[in-house]
Amino acid sequence: MPKASNSVASRRRRKKILKQSKGYRGARGNVYTIAKNSVEKGLVHAYRDRKLKKRTFRQLWIARINAAARINGTTYSRLMNALQQKGILINRKVLASLAVENPESFAEIVKFAVK
To answer: What integer pLDDT is reported at residue 82 of this predicted model?
Structure first.
């Protein structure tokens, strides 16, 4: 008796990969074997970079807070220490957005914390 290939599942599996590789350049988008490798590598990058994104944004927030803190006559580490000593629970994301969008209120926070 010949072996059944289960072509329905095989086609579905291949179509899923080719759908994920839509928009890739050249053979990466329409040749199954090449598309499979590209999609696999893309998923690896996506998993890794979801973690890296958190690191990158934290670095950006710290750089913005430090720049704004120096404009107001202190440094990042002194400001964060002063905020912690005063018991002001405000995270870096909010502080950075305040520093960029509303420098006056950031200056008030710095003045209150560091005085």
So the answer is: 97
